[in-house]
Description:
Elements: E1 6-12, E2 21-30, H1 36-44, E3 62-67, E4 70-74, H2 85-100, E5 103-113, H3 120-132, E6 136-141, H4 148-162, E7 171-173, H5 180-192
The structure holds guanosine-5'-triphosphate and magnesium ion (MG).
Magnesium ion is lined by residues 36-37, 58-59, 74.
Amino acid sequence: MNFQNATFEKAFGTAAQLEPSHLPEICFSGRSNVGKSSLINKLLGRKSLARVSAKPGKTVTINFYRVGDVRLVDLPGYGYAKVPFAEKSRWSELMEAYFQSDRAIRHVFQLVDIRHPVTPFDRSMLEFLKASGIPYTVVLTKADKLNRTEKGERLTAVMQELGELAENTQVIPFSVKENEATERLRDIIRRETDFC
Length: 196
Ligand code: GTP
Ligand code: MG
């Protein structure tokens, strides 16, 4: 799998536009501004294939990126208080349609800002994934904002906060400014899609 050779494929803004697919898909989920689009750019070795914004709520569509026969899926961020109600219900419809459509979801990276506690939204997403049997990894983003000691403390705290939701899964601190975690995430993607 050549991560450097990726293209933007499509954006879906409504459930009706969503097409069924059997290509293996790897998803990125998490609250607005947590760093989903930045992480995708880092994985793909690109500066701005996925649009990044300092303002939360930038990605209100499901965006598909194609790497060979694998799709990376940038899910719309949730939990941003200033988003109007109509947008919030569009978000739930879109997410529900995505997860209920007949597709090959291989893995979900659930992103949580390393500096903040796990939100009820994060927790319900993880509970849903666990109940659905979809493999997932928890990624603690913006790790460069903390020093080594603080990072270790937050990692332990998050594992505790998650309890059984962290069992049989990895919790990986990540920063767009470091390369090691990027390779770990790429390895997970390769493993989950190894015939592609
Ligand atoms: P939505 O599309 O609104 O859901 O947001 P998103 O989760 O895609 O976040 P995005 O990648 O747009 O990043 C939000 C902000 O966080 C931007 O200002 C990024 O530059 C910043 N950011 C993302 N990752 C990192 C990181 O690892 N370290 C630091 N310091 N900043 C980061
Ligand atoms: Mg985004």
